[in-house]
Amino acid sequence: MPSALGHLKVIDFSDTISGQYCSRLLADFGAQVVIVEPPAGSAVRRLPPFANDGDSLYFFHLNTGKRSLAIDLSSDKGMADLTSLVVGADVVVVPPGYDCGALQLANESAVFVDISNFGTDGPYSDWKGPEIVHQALSGMMYNNGECGREPLYGVANRAALAASVGAYVGVLAALYTRKRSGAGQSVRVQIAETAAAMCFPYVVQHIYNGTVRARSDQAIPAGQVLCDGGWVCIWIYNHRWKDVLEVVRLPELENDPRFCEPVVRRQNWDALFALIQKQVVDWNAEDLVERLQQAQVIAAKAYRPSEQFANRHLNARGYWSTLHGKRPVLGPPFSLSATPRVAVTDAPQLNDRQIALEWPKKSQAQLKTGPSVPLSGLRVIELTTAWAGPMAGRILGFFGAQCIHVESPNRVNSWRLNKEASNPINFPDGKPGDRPFDRAFLFNSQNINKLSCTLNLKTQEGRDALRKLVAQSDVLICNFRPGTLKKLGLDYDSLKAIKSDIIVAELPAFGISGPMSGYAALGPTMEMATGMSAMIGYKDHRPETTGPSYMDPIGGFNAAAAILTALIHRQNTGEGQHIEVPQVEAAMQLIGPELLKAIETGIDPERNGNRSPYASPHDAFPAAGQDQWIAIAAEDNTGWLALCRLMGCPELALDPRFKTLADRKDNEDALTALVAEWTRDKDKHDLAEQLQKAGIAAAPVNNPRDLALSTYLAHRGFFTELDHPFAGRHNYPTLPIVLSDTPGGQHSAAPGFGYHNQFVLHDILALDNDEIAKVRERAMMTDTPQPGA
Prior knowledge:
Layout: E1 9-12, H1 17-28, E2 32-37, H2 57-63, E3 67-70, H3 76-86, E4 91-94, H4 101-106, E5 111-116, H5 131-138, H6 158-181, E6 185-190, H7 191-197, H8 201-209, E7 222-227, E8 230-235, H9 241-247, H10 262-267, H11 269-280, H12 285-294, E9 299-301, H13 312-316, E10 321-323, E11 327-329, E12 335-336, E13 379-383, H14 388-398, E14 402-407, H15 441-446, E15 450-454, H16 460-470, E16 475-478, H17 484-487, H18 492-498, E17 503-506, H19 523-530, H20 551-573, E18 577-580, H21 583-588, H22 592-601, E19 618-622, E20 629-633, H23 637-646, H24 661-666, H25 668-679, H26 684-693, E21 697-700, H27 704-708, H28 711-715, E22 719-724, E23 728-733, E24 737-739, H29 757-764, H30 769-778
Parallel strand pairs: 1-2, 1-4, 2-3, 4-5, 5-6, 13-14, 13-16, 14-15, 16-17, 17-18
Antiparallel strand pairs: 6-24, 7-8, 8-9, 10-11, 12-18, 19-20, 20-21, 22-23
Helix pairs in contact: 1-2, 1-6, 2-22, 5-7, 6-7, 6-20, 14-20
């Protein structure tokens, strides 16, 4: 099979998990990747968790499909050897903050990639940044866990690996524009900024009306029950209330005064789920989920990591492969019909093959055109709703594509909130106005740089108009349920007949095939299906999910990555293709090492709050104020000694309960109490500064107000002020992917409903007035949601 990136040569001497995952994605789709390691081997080779044979499962997961070369970069000869490789490379992944000047002079057509914690200048540039710090600063951690208890940071290194996907997107955008200009450039991504980009909707809500949602206000219409075989999350929308009761065989609760009305039902949520729990305690978890899904109720089992290798759905899809008949390899994050992931080979042994130190030098192409936005001239059609699909389109629009958000006149994007009562917390200044569906913070946070066109695709005229639009477009993105496009006659084969090089990307939660392919899902239930939730939670408590929803923005990043991979292939060959981004499988990459460890040993990580086997203390501690917290992580004994000194208790370092990491882990409750007593009356921001200056990883657990006022994000240019025709002028978060010569940008606020109908019909489709009138009438083109929405 051909590969999308087989023409690329990549050098990775980043020596970080972020850099190595970025280059692994390049290797997955055909690039020749060489990791340059120190003579003693990459530091990633020494990262836990470890396989039974002692190999780092992090290194294995991040470096399949690559080759290794050991070079001592502290010597002149080593730098000369590195330069010899760089002159023939297309992409060079460098260590955080690396000065690329000399290497860029050696190869001006290469794309240089720098993924760092906080950048080299501005606030936090000298801060330590383990995962708990990034999640605390991002605003995501503030949403997680029970009100009154310490918030939860999550699991693994999800922020770092999300930044890798962002960097991969930036690399491909730079390579796409290089085809036109002949020039390379730098791509910079910061993990802290990426983590904030995963949690931006509620920052926009605060900017709109000052709301800071407390964790006590974060109630979602879901709960969990423990069944035979595991925990099950049940999402109870009001319109599915009777369906839930029928499935769990509790029809008598429909008229129970505690539950019959939605508002009262929410007030008695714990009592409701206690009754459901009693009813289903002996039911099989997967059977319950299947029954609920058949009744159109969103539900999911919280799969344990050790279960995933035998997962019937994943196996039906052929997700897993094995190397040497033993070690599993995770499936690809996305699948491309014409250029699938290349056959996976083992992670390399140190310096395991002879690699010519001099790759053929890249010809320095003459500058063909001046710098431009990478994707200018491309047109993208979005048939999407909520978060993941629109975010994929938003990323493409950020890099210059024209994105047309096609909306139904009578089944409107749920994030426009047109079905909901006009709760003031959703709108600027708390006022719904005459067009609340154009003033909702959720939709407006996610649909920047787009056009809105309404078409009823259930009518022949609506489908015909879309087909005409496809004939003049490059990409179509859809996050409807599998099979929906085919029912509408708009599947890939049908659209390919209209536009031979069209790229169609579908984002089904569980994939297009397999026994769970038809399951409906939301971010939290997808998180349960990955195996993440089983690792997140308080000791001896139920699994937790990451709020507001971690899977959706990750799904958007992966979809944009897949589309850009296909665009690179199309740019070189003229061939379009079909893309499948199964969001659950894509997100499993973020916990790949943890999955592999549990599968090999059969032992699942225990939920234990924020505590880590590799650091202590490693937790969130109370700070001054209501529900205010600070995250602190002593990553090694040096950090622990520094913490003892800053606390004014140097004798703690000599206390036999706390002398070593093993001692601190054995006495962690006592240690947590001591640190909490010290932090509880201190300002979280000031204390974090003091801790970081002392060399201790720490961060305030930020809420939306903190993010809106963040000096770090302001320095990074994270916010863009935009005028919205119905919501007014406000700051909106941007994207964390910075290209040095052809940067993306935000130029227009989210569109009003149907705001660009005339532009699409007249300026793009070039219809005459009679044709426009016919389409408007029969395809129900409107600028106001119709009854039944």
